[in-house]
Design goal:
It is a single chain. This protein is 72% helix and 0% strand. The protein is an all-alpha fold. α4 packs across α5. It is flat and about 75 Å long. About 17% of the residues have low confidence.
């Protein structure tokens, strides 16, 4: 979060993390050297080195960004900003002390034009020439102030050590702006992807430690891990929407800000319900061809057909949800009244042609309906053992809980549509996110190998349920804390920027 907020504390935090990671790598290498490889060709070992390299590269890139201090933006905009650079009184006094001749000449041109000893034409010419020369001097002053400003602080940062400052100055002169723009793209991409990569790394670590998903069981394990992971992240995003994330897109149960407050690109982003429907559609369209992958070449069973039917439901439901979200489709559905609306001047009660308030906000029940049906199906889905049936019933019931909580949200929104750009934070969405996060984790744990291990060690289904509830509550609290830290870091950076520019009241 500090990296996303562009906090100055980011390099120090990243350095501390890499130090702990290096210590873990050292212990891991010692352990691998002393013990045999119990899970040959496992993904976790290879992925761990890849992620370590990515994080180290991001740290180096972040340190370079810290040294150059926004060089990519500063040098590109200098020529455009020089005529409009705000100058404080203190800076003006300092400039007058350093360049008395230039300041004196500026005052001389102003005073020379005020004496009426010449005729009107000469006076007018003198005024014009004086103003032109004054403008030239002011522009020259602006250039000098810009150069002085860049030399004093808008270039490389100062660390307080002469050797380090010289090294930073050398790096600042060496790195071109185009390279800095490419570095920014890489850095932002890592910020976006690192959470998902870390989740995959942790999950693969558990799989490797437990020694599961071997042989043909890998397909069942991948199916539960990928699908459960989707619902897990869906829950985290739902909690993020409640906290105010994506408010600039209108996803935080708020009014979408217009162009001017946000960029035109952000204003064109589709609604959250459209994205949910698209993910459901994509989920169904891909799983139609993957449900029989574990028994490829064998006869289709009734359970295979059940799974394919669920995928078809996701495909059709996602497509229906996207159509409901389409403004063009909704406009076409009003065609029967279009001709009357075109001649509404002939009819009284013009306010009755005003679009309802509900048109200004998306209320699409299709995503919640699809997950409700999935939960009902999985709650009664036949399994090979009682433990497996109970575990499936747990996450199915949690998905039903999500659908009911989302229905409560839409009822609240229908009764009182959002009227502010600020997040409305309906309380039912906290329950929605809790059900999705915990349901996704239990979904992952309901694979064949994990259930077999539970039966081998005489663990009942409530063990998974209680452990998952505890972890879900902790994860939600942690997410709220880190996003609050991000908000604090952004405000602190903005305050520092205002102080540096001298605009703080």
């Amino acid at each position: 979060m500090l990296s996303v907020a562009r906090s100055r504390l980011t390099p120090a935090i990243q350095l501390g993390f890499l130090s702990l990671n290096s210590l873990g790598l050292l212990f891991g290498l010692i352990y691998n050297h002393k013990t045999p490889d119990l899970y040959e060709e496992n993904l976790h070992h290879k992925l761990g080195w890849v992620v370590t390299f990515i994080l180290f590269s991001q740290f180096v890139v972040g340190l370079l960004k810290f040294c150059t201090h926004g060089k990519a933006n500063t040098e590109a905009d200098n020529d455009e900003r020089v005529s409009f650079m705000p100058i404080s009184t203190d800076d003006m006094d300092g400039y007058q002390q350093m360049h008395p001749d230039s300041v004196a000449s500026m005052h001389r041109y102003s005073h020379d034009s005020g004496h009426g000893t010449e005729d009107d034409s000469r006076t007018s010419n003198s005024l014009t020439e004086a103003r032109e020369e004054k403008d030239e001097d002011a522009q020259h002053y602006g250039h000098q102030m810009r150069d002085d400003c860049l030399d004093r602080g808008e270039g490389p940062r100062s660390l307080g050590f002469a050797t380090a400052d010289r090294a930073l100055s050398w790096v600042y002169q060496l790195v071109p702006c185009q390279l800095m723009k490419m570095i920014d793209v890489f850095y932002d991409a890592v910020d976006v992807c690192i959470l998902v990569i870390g989740f995959v790394l942790i999950l693969s670590g558990f799989i490797t430690y437990a020694g599961i998903f071997k042989g043909n069981n890998v397909f069942n394990g991948l199916a539960h891990s990928i699908k459960g992971g989707i619902f897990f992240w869906y829950g985290l995003l739902t909690l993020g929407r409640w906290m105010g994330c994506f408010a600039e897109y209108g996803w935080a149960w708020n009014v979408r800000p217009p162009v001017g407050m946000v960029s035109s690109r952000k204003a064109r982003v589709p609604s959250a319900e459209f994205v949910e429907s698209f993910v459901i559609f994509l989920y169904g369209s891909t799983n139609v061809f993957l449900e029989h992958l574990a028994a490829w070449g064998d006869a289709w069973t009734a359970q295979d057909l059940e799974h394919v039917s669920i995928s078809v439901m996701f495909l059709g439901g996602g497509l229906c949800g996207m159509l409901v979200e389409s403004r063009k489709v909704r406009d076409l559905l009003n065609t029967s009244l279009a001709r009357w609306n075109a001649s509404q001047d002939q009819y009284p009660f013009k306010e009755q042609w005003t679009p309802p308030k509900t048109y200004s906000f998306s209320m699409n029940p299709i995503p919640g309906l699809i997950i409700l049906l999935l939960g009902l199906m999985m709650s009664s889905h036949h399994q090979h053992s009682m433990v497996s049936t109970m575990v499936h019933k747990q996450w199915g019931s949690l998905f039903v809980g999500f659908a009911l909580a989302r229905a409560v949200t839409y009822i609240l929104i229908y009764l009182s549509p959002p009227s502010s750009y600020l997040p409305s934070r309906p309380p039912s969405e906290i329950i929605s996110s809790f059900c999705l996060i915990s349901g996704g984790l239990i979904f992952i744990a309901s694979n064949k190998d994990t259930v077999a291990a539970m039966e081998r060690y005489d663990l009942n289904a409530m063990f998974v349920f209680t452990v998952t509830m505890g972890w879900t509550a902790f994860l939600m609290a942690w997410q709220i804390i880190v996003l609050a830290i991000k908000g604090w870091a952004v405000r602190k950076r903005q305050l520092g920027t205002r102080i540096a520019r001298g605009t703080l009241a």
